[in-house]
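#data-curation
PF: Archiving a pair of folding outputs for the training set. Convention for this channel: one message per protein, sequence first, structure tokens after, nothing in between. First:
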Amino acid sequence: MPGIPGGTVTPADGLTLSRLGYGTMRLTGPNVFGPPEDRAQALAVLREAVASGVTHIDTADFYGPVVVNELIRQALHPYPADLRIVTKVGARRDADGGWIQSLDPADLKEQVRENLRHLGVDTLDVVNLRVGTHDTPNEDSVAEPFGALAELRQEGLIRHLGLSCVSERQLTEARAVAPVVTVQNLYNLAVRRDDALLERCEAESIAFVPYFPLGGFTPLQSGTLTRIAAALDASPQQVALAWLLHRSPAVAVIPGTSSPAHLRENLAAADLALPADALAELNAIGAPAS
């Protein structure tokens, strides 16, 4: 679709996301904790993302905590009709910024209500249940916590449900409870352990949303990536994002930044063509050993 970075993916009726979205995690202080160093710039980045055609913003009330959702509300409310805000529940922060898993059904429902208040909406577009740690899924049952969110969906407080940091078995278990429209897992050019899960999501019309698409706290390092980027007159980050968009039509990426210039660089990746020989080399970077 012209004007929307990377085109769109529609995993459910009424839910169309720009395939190149914007992740808000970096709009906080260090360690995703506390306020941003430059609040005016954080607001400007959010506004520029939407003005550039992004219709998919990823957030969580535990970013800050609360900081990011309040920034989103200040920058963008009342929200454009086509904007979809995807949030997460399943964690809280302690006084020192530590991450505490919180999957108790009653607290999950309170987390949803907090997101509603801080974003200034009556209904959340998508709520992802965060199950594993930031980089490692587990095999715990998701039936009870996902069921709590499904109850709020029935009440009209949530339109759609998704999962974050999960295994294939957990996806199967959740789908027996309620429809799943998004799966957010760690996945990028170098970390490919969820190839099969991505392909399943494509087959089942679920949007697959890689978090840490550029490596997260450990930026991608690859001589092959650097060489191909130089040949294409692009940055390695642009090539890594373009590769994800080429990987599957089910993929929607949510790179984050607090810099307007970096935002523009990320969005330009939507228009980067990757020749077949470059794709073959990139595919080999994180492919499982045979």
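PF: Second:
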Amino acid sequence: MSLGTASSPQLLRRMNSGALMRFALGAGEFTAAEAMGATALTRSTVLGVCDDLVAAGWLDEVEDSRAAGLTSKGRPARRYRLREDAGVVAGVDAGENRFTVVVADLRGGVLAGARGDAPAVDRRKGAAAERSRAAAAVERRALAARLLDEALAQAGADRTDVLVVVVGVPAPVDAEGRSPAGDRDFWKTMNPDFADLLPGVAVVENDANLAAVAEQSLGGQAHVANVATLLSGERLGAGVIVDGRLLRGARGGAGEMRFLDIVEGAGTPDGVGALARTWAREAVASGRATALAARPDATAQDVFRAAEDGDALAIEILDRLGERIARVALVLASLLDIERVVVAGAIADAVEPVLRRARVVLAEDFYPPVPELVASALGRDVVVRGAVESARAYLREEPLAFTPRPRA
């Protein structure tokens, strides 16, 4: 098919430039020959495009291979690298209780970060609770902006340097970055139009989806085409990949766990951290003999530590959590033919005892196939790491749609 004689040279040049930029975004220093091998472009095309990208401010030409002492024979190879100060990307984990912001260079290297506690959200009914949620939404917007500015300042950058920022929220998110009404406006409180507030290309995404991106792209787990990444702190949410594709749905609600309210043995969408804390406090209030009695405001971490020390109540709570996780995993596997469920988030470092019990329940109480259960290795920052990686993916998709920072 003809592209048209007038426009085809310019279009071809742009396509070649995009291909070379995608290579440069993942490379360190590179030679023309290395770029040729990665892009299948000719030497003359690579050299011409690299000259264009140097002029545009995306690349720097560095010492040739002979001057750098890499070779002493033949024609010296021209060498290039992505310009270090061409811009930055940012990721924001706008959690229910805590925000984390990371600013990274265009290859994903972390430059700086900032954290802050989120305002409490009143989930009850009534006019007073509605006013509280409206105020919390305003505070969440201000907190995201403040932490981003703090991280940028630490990185020696400012808002004009931001090419893409991705925000993860504990709510379904549609293709326009908005969250639907529902759950007493909790979702809209969690996502108070962040996309209108932040610099660069601002993208809002569900936090569990970003955790799934991190697990698949950052070496958290071996690649699996059918996997659910289960965020399990205060509430359960799943980023679901089926046949290698991230599921979203019309309103971004794929992976929302509200259906657990009607699943026997699962009960609610409350997460492992929230349930461990709630069950421990209820037992202590009832006068149950336990080492946790000294901690009437016991946290999930207290429960896990007590279980390690052999406390009977804490072990019982972890077993109950394992039974619940087993049922949640089986529901996901039954509905979507999931092969693996990855439990991620801050609780992942300690969740192995829960998963051991869950594996026993799956083996003894249900017939195969049942999903593999594993803990994430990416720690509490899995969402913000997924946000940074997603920001880089947006940049790689159409790099020439962005403008690099002017040279000093």
